[in-house]
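User: I'm preparing a small set of examples for a lab meeting where we compare how different chains pack in three dimensions. I only have the primary sequence for this one, and I'd like the structure in C-alpha cell form so I can line it up with the others. Please keep the answer compact; I'll paste it straight into my notes.
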Amino acid sequence: MKMGDQGFLRNVNASRLGMDRRTRSFNAALSVFYARLLQLASRSQGFENTPSPRRRSYLTNIVDV
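Assistant: Understood. Below is the C-alpha cell output for the 65-residue chain.
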C-alpha cells in the first residue's frame, strides 16, 4: 500500500461519514501538536537542529495535502 492510497482510503471513509472537512482539520491540528511535541522532546535531548527523516515522513503521513 502506497502513501497516496492510504490518504485516498481515509478520504473515502471520511466523506462517507460526512466529516471530510472536520477530519482534515483535525489531522492538521494533530500534526501541529506532534511537531511541537517532537520539537520539545528533541530540544530536551539536545538535538535542536537535526530533524530525522523518519519524523518528517511520519508528519506528512498524518496530513493529506
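A couple of notes for your slides: Residues 20-44 form the longest helix (25 residues). The chain has one domain: 3-62.

User: Perfect, thanks.
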